[in-house]
Amino acid sequence: MGQSIDSMLQNKAQHAKAISMEKEIEHKAIADWLTNVAQKRDKRAFTELFRFFAPKIQRIATSKYGNESLAAEVVQETMTNVWRKAHLFDASKGAPTTWVYTVMRNVSFDLLRKIKSKKEDNLSDDFWPLVESVEEDVKVFEDHLASKEMMACIDKLPDPQKSVVKGFYFMEMSQEQLAEHLDVPLGTIKSRLRLALARLKQHMGEIHD
Amino acid sequence: MIKHHPNSELLEKFADGELPASIAAGIAIHVEMCPVCKVAVAELTEQRSAIHFESSDLEMPMSELNIASMVEEITLSDEIDIAIADKEKSISVKGEEYILPRALTNMAMSKWSSIGHLARARFSIDEEPLRASLLQIQAGGSVPEHTHKGFELTVLVDGHFEDELGIYGPGDFILLDAEHTHSPVTKDGCLCYTVANDAQHFTQGINKLLNPIGSFIY
Amino acid sequence: MIVGFMILPLFPLPIFLLPAGVTQLRIFEQRYLTMIKNANKTDGFIIGYANNDDEISNWGSWVDIIDFDTGDDGMLNILVRCKKLVKVSQHKRQQDKLITVKATPLLHWPEINSNKRCIPLRTQLQQLFKQHDTLNKLYATPAFYRDDWVVARWLELLPVSFENKKLFVHPNSFISAVDFLTTVILEENNLIT
């Protein structure tokens, strides 16, 4: 009752601060789930993401399109995209909620266009690029000159060789080479390989059953 | 320097994905070239996501069973999507080479047809009555004075033109409605992305005879 | 641009190549020379297993050409590096018998650092590189500091059948791979003979 305006304002400010703290923690949790999905295909993390986003997306899409089954399709498509694209999320570029929102926006746009104009041109990624530019990790051959040189090189090949059966190199070692490298008898290598394979198959069997 | 921008209502609808593809493409071309609107769209998107995603009141509850089965279905796949380098798409019109804005690279385009200084290719965007085109006005060419029965959106992709209202350059976004009359002229030639919902209507004297051009441009 | 799949040419070869793995190929046949010529336009190609009955494995290695030369014998040698593993489906045979496939990128192991069990594997691999100049030539910048890199290179090198190596394509197979390598390369005492 006797609360001064000052203390009310202070309370409010504290409340706002508490909310933004909460948001920060929430963002961190969502970003961690995304990372775990991207790197480990972590189903539990994906379930958390699903629990957080799916009911909200269902609501947004239902109120937008007034159609629950279409909304369910938006949920399904958006969450599938989150599963397939999680590795493209970059925490330094913005909040994870904004990223999922853009995924949902793009999915809805393409889906609606498919329904309304019968077009499956998936234009959303051209209008709202999810990634700005792609860093090519292999620059060596991007070089225009190199590719030209290679053409010339191919064209110079003597004709008979152009038609011979293909050949190739394996980079694989032989059992003898491996034994020599590890400085153990060949027999030891052979039995180790057998053992390793037996263990592997047993282990894989456990995973897949 | 880009002087003409989409208004905030259009930007907001763009950020929400609520515009028809033809109009969204026009804004995307502008945003690709205009750092100011790019930031604005990013901020709008952040605001929208905050409103929708950061309050648990705005949810439609889903059953545990439903959640479990959808998660199961989605996570069954090991497939991922990847980002690959964009392939620039260039076009050649009447001896001029242009690199298409990213927004237009995957929009199916008709062959070019031309009348006088004008050349036009249509996008098969299937949003009747909206029609989207690329329009080239060759150097020294003009479009006779006309009004629009509906509206006309023009985004300059390359070159300049001027009309009664000013000079426009690459990236400028010009939305005219039925009240406006203009007769664009270009000195250096230009390429525009246009969207209209009705034929242009030529207003002056002999130009009335040109009304077929109006439907050509539309 | 974000894509869910690509249509790429297939170079049929039962070779086990994980992401970042490099190998040398000798190219003779005309259709493959044409494929190499176009590789820049098509974003590389797929190396996948195919037997004579046209049976094609359901996964492959998506590679980029990183270098090339003509050997002393006048053959074309190219160096390719695996960008990603892909799921292979819907193969089609073109007129020149070149096979194209729908290639869907797959996730493989994440970057892994400082797994203690990988230290001896790394030491052994470094020694192997020292002894074999051909390996050094393949890798300009070997990433010995990455455990996933070390383990992947070992798997490619080991004399084990392709069928068995296939088990390591799964994104969760890293630990199994470490177990496997530890048994082959390090285990001396626990042998059941």
From TrEMBL, chain A:
One of its GO terms (biological process) is DNA-templated transcription initiation. Keywords: DNA-binding, Sigma factor, Transcription, Transcription regulation. Residues 50-115, 153-202 form the RNA polymerase sigma-70 region domain. The keyword Disulfide bond does not apply. Belongs to the sigma-70 factor family. ECF subfamily. SUPFAM superfamilies: Sigma2 domain of RNA polymerase sigma factors, Sigma3 and sigma4 domains of RNA polymerase sigma factors. It comes from the Bacteria. The keyword Transcription applies. This is Sigma-70 family RNA polymerase sigma factor. GO terms for molecular function: DNA binding; sigma factor activity. It holds the Pfam family Sigma70_r4. It comes from Thalassotalea algicola.
TrEMBL record, chain B:
InterPro entries: Anti-sigma_ChrR, Anti_sigma_zinc_sf, ChrR-like_cupin_dom, RmlC-like_jellyroll, RmlC_Cupin_sf. CDD domains: cupin_ChrR. This is Transcriptional regulator. It comes from the Bacteria. Coiled coil: none annotated. Residues 132-195 form the ChrR-like cupin domain. Pfam families: Cupin_7 (PF12973).
